[in-house]
């Protein structure tokens, strides 16, 4: 029975995809998704390389701060208990579940030359890069319901008299994609108003901590010969926190509207991505940084104004 149900779902998905994804009624060549995923990968790799460059340049500073903290603890052993209590509180808060209940909203009003891209999505992509020192990383995707989620944490492990571990950092991303081909030349405008739930925070004593996250739309343009001509990208920052000893949480609410506009040609294909990304950094030792983001209702509306 389960096998029959699974086959029926797969058949329905295959029948729906060309209608939901293609503005002109035909299906996007699969290799365009491969090219677009590679572009997303290179974008995140560049971001990680920049992070590593900054980290390596400040390694001596990290070592100096860690030794200074050890010296202070030797002078006042009570400081260690205070730091351990702060760590425990933030680790506990980082593990608290967030509210993922989505609030109902009315469907989009029909408009001429409007296409709605939503579940089931045609493609999915994830990215995770981190320093494997006492870190936790979890990424979830649901192409059927259009949901993305990540949870990243860096944990402290320093003990008095033990050389401090290296700094912790993590960068993650996840994306859902459809293929789109405009029915005619014109001005394309994309809209997305997802629901978001999140929690994030930092805790550190004389140490660097950082957490950030953003959501965005990206359209990769493909010419008929298969070449990629340009990428149109727009990202909205949800948070960027450098403050120590702070925690923020939110219920499931609708986030900011994301828009993306460009002139398009009917002969070209576009891989349209809804994606999210985030990162945490901490100096290791006594520092803690964490971030959890859950995003739903990721439907993308595309309006086309013909030339």
Topology pattern, helix = H, strand = E: HHHHEEEEEEEEEEEEEE
Count of helical stretches: 4
Number of domains: 1
Largest beta-sheet characterization:
5 strands, antiparallel
How many strand units?
A: 14
The residue-averaged pLDDT reads 78
Distance N to C terminus: 52 Å
The backbone outline, from C-alpha atoms, is elongated
Read across the widest sheet, the strand sequence of neighbours is 2-5-12-8-9
Residue stretches low in confidence (pLDDT < 50, at least 5 long) are 1-25, 159-164
Give the proportion of residues in helices.
Answer: 25-40%
Instruction: Provide the β-strand percentage band.
Output: 35-45%
Structural class: alpha+beta
Radius of gyration computed on alpha carbons:
23 Å
TL;DR?
Helices cover 27% and strands 43% of the residues.
Tell me what the structure shows.
The chain is of the alpha+beta class and 307 residues long. The protein has one domain (23-306). 27% of the residues lie in helices and 43% in strands. It is built from four helices and 14 strands. It has helices at 2-21, 30-57, 59-75, 78-94; strands at residues 114-117, 123-130, 135-142, 147-154, 168-180, 186-192, 195-203, 209-222, 228-241, 246-254, 258-264, 269-282, 288-296, 300-306. The protein has a five-stranded antiparallel beta sheet, with helices on one face. The chain is elongated and about 75 Å long. The chain starts with a helix and ends with a strand. 38% of the residues are buried. Residues 1-25 and 159-164 have low confidence and may be disordered. Residues 93-115 are annotated as: Disordered. Keywords: Signal. Residues 1-23 form the signal peptide.
């Amino acid at each position: 029975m389960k096998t029959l149900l699974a086959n029926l779902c797969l058949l329905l998905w295959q029948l729906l995809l060309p209608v939901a994804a293609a503005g002109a009624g035909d299906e996007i060549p699969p290799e365009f998704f491969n090219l677009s995923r590679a572009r997303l990968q290179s974008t995140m790799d560049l971001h990680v390389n920049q992070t590593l460059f900054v980290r390596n340049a400040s390694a001596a500073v990290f070592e100096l701060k860690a030794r200074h903290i050890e010296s202070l603890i030797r002078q006042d052993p009570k400081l260690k208990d205070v730091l351990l209590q702060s760590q425990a509180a933030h680790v506990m808060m980082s593990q608290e579940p967030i509210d993922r209940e989505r609030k109902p909203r009315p469907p989009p009003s029909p408009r001429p030359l409007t296409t709605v891209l939503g579940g089931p999505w045609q493609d999915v992509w994830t990215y995770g890069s981190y320093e494997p020192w006492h870190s936790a990383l979890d990424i979830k995707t649901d192409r059927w319901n259009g949901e993305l989620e990540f949870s990243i944490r860096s944990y402290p492990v320093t003990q008095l008299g033990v050389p401090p571990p290296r700094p912790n950092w993590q960068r993650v991303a996840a994306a859902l994609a459809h293929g789109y081909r405009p029915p005619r030349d014109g001005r394309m405008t994309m809209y997305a108003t997802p629901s978001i739930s999140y929690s994030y925070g930092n805790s550190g004593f004389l140490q660097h901590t950082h957490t950030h996250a953003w959501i965005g739309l990206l359209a990769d343009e493909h010419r008929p010969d298969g070449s990629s001509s340009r990428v149109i990208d727009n990202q909205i920052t949800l948070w960027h926190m450098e403050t120590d000893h702070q925690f923020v949480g939110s219920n499931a609410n609708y986030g900011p509207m994301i828009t993306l506009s460009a002139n398009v040609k009917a002969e070209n294909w576009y891989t349209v991505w809804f994606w999210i990304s985030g990162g945490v950094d901490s100096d290791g030792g006594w520092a803690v940084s964490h971030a959890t983001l859950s995003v739903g209702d990721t439907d993308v509306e595309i309006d086309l104004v013909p030339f």
